[in-house]
Amino acid sequence: MLSAFERVLARRPLLVKSGTGLVLGAAGDFTAQRLEGGAYDRRRGFAFTSLATFWNGACMHHLFQWLERALPQSHGLRSLLPKMCCTQLVINPFVYLPLFYLWTGAVLGRSLAQTREKAEKEYWRTLKATWALFVPFNLVNFGVVPARHQAAALALFSFMYNTAISLIANAESTRGVSWRPDHLYSEEISPQLHASTTGEASKLMAVDLSS
């Protein structure tokens, strides 16, 4: 199975990585919606799945290739630290998060003014929570995982990320809770999320996509 995956990955890397992002993005949101109960929201599912496919597939394929050419993994800390600075201080705050709000806002039918208001309200806490999760992950991903598997590893790790953010997405509107990141530690408020994520990772992106 692994050898077959390696062969397909070598021949069609972009297709494999995009497909991995699609499947795991859809699975993350579907899992969250099943845990919440109620009917499946296709529009919400499409918002998460389409973004995960584009970002974890095409974007990360090209970004990780470029990073590996510029900063080979074999250089150890000399390449690891610049990669971390690039992804956590440039890509996440100035590329991914703006894209996240614009993409999901467009799919969910928000106006640009509504999207901007939402981003301004949530940006800083969202960025801090993203760092809490992805700084330790990327240390391992860039330091240990072979370069050809890094985009797929990111997509796999993002399954938990997508599940958590989707669980949070409708919580405020359905339960009347005013969310803060520390609320995610509470088993009373979110028993499913509390049971499936722990520590800093459970602070993940307190974003209400339903408003």
Automatic annotation (TrEMBL):
Principal location: membrane
CC per GO annotation: cytoplasm; membrane
Keyword Cytoplasm found: no
Membrane topology term: Multi-pass membrane protein
Pfam families noted in UniProt: Mpv17_PMP22 (PF04117)
Cellular compartments annotated: Membrane
Record carries keyword Transmembrane helix: yes
Keywords, alphabetical: Membrane, Transmembrane, Transmembrane helix
PANTHER family associated with the record: PEROXISOMAL MEMBRANE PROTEIN 2, PXMP2 MPV17, PROTEIN MPV17
Recorded family membership: Belongs to the peroxisomal membrane protein PXMP2/4 family.
Protein name per Swiss-Prot or TrEMBL: Peroxisomal membrane protein 2
Species this protein is from: Prymnesium parvum (Toxic golden alga)
Lineage: Eukaryota, Haptista, Haptophyta, Prymnesiophyceae, Prymnesiales
